Amino acid sequence: MAFETPSPSELADVFGLLANDLRVAVVRELWLAFPDPLSFSALRERVGGPDSGTFNYHLNELQPAFVESVEDRYTLTYAGRQVVGVAVSGRLDGRDGPTVDATPAGECLSCPATTELRYEAGVATVACPECGLLAAETAVPPAVIQSAERDPAERESSRRESVVRVVSDHLRRTAERLARGFCTHCDGRVDATLVGDTDDEAVAHRRELGVRFDCRVCGAEPRLNVGAVLLADPAVVSLLTDAGVDLRERYAWELAPLLDPESARTTNEGDESRLRVTFAVDDERLVVTVDDTASVVETERV
User: Fold this and answer.
1) pTM exceeding 0.70
2) Which sequence spans correspond to the domains of the chain?
3) Is the domain 8-89 a CATH 1.10.1060.10 member?
4) Residues 200-246: pLDDT tens digits?
């Protein structure tokens, strides 16, 4: 079944439903009560709303987009829960969100220096101040940063380390979702494509290592290094385990054997291209072959 993206006017109508303080208060109270539904009288009392007629009008306006009625009780729809989650995460308004100045963020892949993480306007960037290498750049909701900074008794250095760690974990989770075929923006299905033979802007250390994900629903086109895509593959996990590499102790952008494999070669098999990469950790080596959709077709320990 084809998915039709809502038109601008349809989106305006939906978002317009929340352009009222009373309706926002209704959604908020249903969020706080979820998963328990609330009766009309209980919901009105919690909101502190006006007369029942006015309150009923605004409650009806929120249905069926954000609120649903179940046996004369009210609860949020999936869309209602999502819109509240987005709002509290800080995605809708980053003007007063947190910022993080240059913070040490692990080893550089290209030189002996230490990379630095910066966070501003909802974007986390990890780069090397010496060689200029951009190790990572990813959108991170302000709530992710704020949740890592909540302990006021924690030393400043510890808080900064917590922020770097949570950004790394968020980036790894993003890569896992994309690798499993889900858009990180709308949860729609995505199609992966190697970008080595295209005119796409390079997103990895070398063009042939880049992967683009095209969302079938919202049209987003996030990009990743092929090493990040393969991070959860059983053969790769086995390689790291045998080499004593604990992913929980390493930042996502520090995994040099995966993010910058020592050899990468593109071959053609019929009408399809293949990318063959060799990952080496100490004396352990793994050759992984992926097709043009970044799916693993063969692995070999050598």
Assistant:
1) yes
2) 8-89, 92-179, 181-302
3) no
4) 555 555 667 888 999 998 888 988 888 888 888 899 989 888 888 88
